[in-house]
Write a structure and sequence with these properties.
Number of helices: 13
Radius of gyration: 19 Å
Distance between the termini: 45 Å
Helix content: 40-55%
CATH class of the largest domain: Alpha Beta
Number of domains: 2
CATH topology of the largest domain: Rossmann fold
Shape: globular
Strand content: 15-25%
CATH superfamily of the largest domain: Thiamin diphosphate (ThDP)-binding fold, Pyr/PP domains
Order of helices and strands: HEHHEHEHHEHEHEEEHEEHEHEHH
Amino acid sequence: MAKEMRGIFGEALRDLGAENEKVVVLDADLSGATKSATFGAAYPDRFYNIGIAEANMVSIAAGMASCDLIPYACTFSFLLALRSLDQIRSQICCPKLNVKLVGTNGGLSGFGDGATHQSTNDLAIMTSLPNMHVIVPSDEATARWAIRGAAEVEGPVFVRIARVPAPDFHTNTDFVFGRSNVLREGTDVTILAMGLMTAKALEAADLLAGQGISAEVLESLTLKPFDRETLAASAAKTGAVVTAEEHSRYGGLFSVASETLSETSPVPVLPVAIEDRFGETGTYDQLLGTLGLTADHIVSQALRAIGMKKS
């Protein structure tokens, strides 16, 4: 049975702490929910519960980074992107400090807390900040790589972690920072996916194959820096692109891909993303269906994109 992504994060953070004594962890009174408490139980002298004070947590992390520590500041993704934005911009990104920000309950995965706690614009905010790196894991292998890899990148890093379980599908775990993963080669349409939508992109590719359509599936593991070259090469080959993300269509994967292809390989690009709206209360699967984030929606957009390139 697949593990919750937040639990995998907690384990990966604990394992990193065993390897690197410079790693310290801060949480804003949500360590039980984010699972950073796993690190705290193993290394209580390097774990700091700052309380319900997200902006202060970020400021403290900045100070720790200036003392040659590697702080991981953890809380729900929407709290980092919204309540702590001034401190992230001014105290971390501007001086390019070595702080790692981990936003859990990413996307719609905090479904039980309603629309206010669903992070649907966090990536747009984080990618717009100079010097920020952005990683969006899709399964256990990529989550463990992201937490370890963040410590190896000098400067600010934001990692978006889902709360819910995710199916494991990576057979090749030789991930490269800043490089997209080519999960399946195809000739008729490119599906560029991110986060938990990557598994649904693979499912959509299977459905399309049943209709005689060959879909190439790419995974954008690091949204920033974005791998322009791999997407441009794929788009030039297939002539049509669909993006799939658990995020607003504004400022996320669809935006970055569209901007890239307008300069490199102009082809039809269609999004599978959240339209200009907030989420709502419901189960995770209900929300994905209501907001148009399923394999069937990817198939529908792929067929549209293929039709557009033929017209």
